[in-house]
Amino acid sequence: MNKAIIKFVGFLDQEAVRIQNNFIKECTILGGYNVKKLDDITYKISECHNISRQLKVPEKDYSLHGEIFIQFDILSHYLNISNLTPKEASVIILTFLRKNIAAGICESESNAFDPKEIDSYPFKTVTPEEVHQLIHEDRYRILMSKSEEERTPKENALIEELEEYTKTHSTNVDIFKNIHQKINEHYFSIQDSYTEDDIYIFIEQLRKLNLSEKYCQILTNYLINEINKRKNKQIISTQQYTPKKIVKPETTSLSKKEINTLYRELCTYYNPDTKVITRYLTLQEIIHCLFIMRKLNFNKESLSLFLKTVEKFNRQQEVNPLSQYIELYNKLLYYKDRLGLEDDLSSIESIIQEMFIVSDKDYVEWKKLLAEELSNLLRSLSNNHDYEIEKSLSLSN
């Protein structure tokens, strides 16, 4: 079992005991208990046990269990009050998604039991505990695979009652089917080659599953870091840095149609006639614009004017500072030793670490602080465009 899973399971088991002990202590002090409060406490303990139990299922047995986990809002809560690191929390989230896909949610066409209502439903032929056991051990699916003649009268009565329960207490798997199909397409099926665009599509699906925004950001950061690790393996040491000479590209013979196509594409980002930026441009889009402008033989002054214009425009736009930091990470790394940014980057990393361990209320304040620190750092990099130019030159090779 993964260390993150062991750690979180241990926390959940302790949390269930803590909730129970606090309730007993409260009852002792008050000399009794409120029925509604008892139901709430029972439900919270059940939440802890349910998440813990599903995490204990060995990965090799995922496909044997038809159980689907959809309570990502509740998972967000328990991750938030645990002492898991951002990386460990990401592992837990990915584990549940992997488990759902292995259980067949991408192929399922039917409804699934809603586990939240089992404990309170008035079953006649079976106890709620036995229903949980039937589902968790996959015995329900085995029973359903038998014909009515092969089943005992008791089993047929049980099936009939569970089917009645499903009519009014079930979750339409089709709602989650498309979500998991996209998650599988943009992450699990391409784990060694997913891009930033895949991550954003992936995270959007998690928002639909009600994973909290805090953990959507944490997982985004985790996945982007994995991409950066992949890219950094290809980075050549730059301790002795000599700036590359920027040379004017050789004249290329483009057809009139090719020139018009490239120019129209450039204008979707930047109009070179009016010098107007159409919207906030990501670093990759800026590099792509430089590449197009070089192909169209814009001179060095035009390239420089574009870079200054987009830098000024982007600085005036409101963007998520964490997403912006992730987007600019490789550029900042590029200038780290060359411009002595070690302390600035260390300060930003410390802020980000704090963001992931504080309450939701404090998270907002740390996010503002990150925005200020990043803004100051980017101002210090004004007019430093070697990174963008080098990257655009590499596209030509």
Structure write-up:
This protein is mainly alpha-helical. It folds into three domains: 3-121 and 169-229, no CATH class; 122-168, no CATH class; 256-396, no CATH class. Helices cover 65% and strands 3% of the residues. The protein has 17 helices and four strands. The protein has a two-stranded antiparallel ribbon with strand order 1-2. α11 (256-267) packs antiparallel against α12. The longest helix has 28 residues, at 3-30. The protein starts with a helix and ends with a helix. Residues 234-251 have low confidence and may be disordered.
Describe the secondary structure blueprint for this structure.
Blueprint lengths: L2 H28 L4 H21 L16 H10 L4 H17 L8 E3 L14 H9 L2 H7 L7 H16 L1 E3 H14 L9 H13 L4 H20 L23 H12 L2 E2 L4 E2 L5 H13 L4 H16 L5 H16 L5 H14 L4 H21 L5 H11 L1
Helix pairs in contact: 1-2, 1-4, 4-10, 8-9, 9-10, 10-14, 11-12, 12-13, 12-17, 15-16
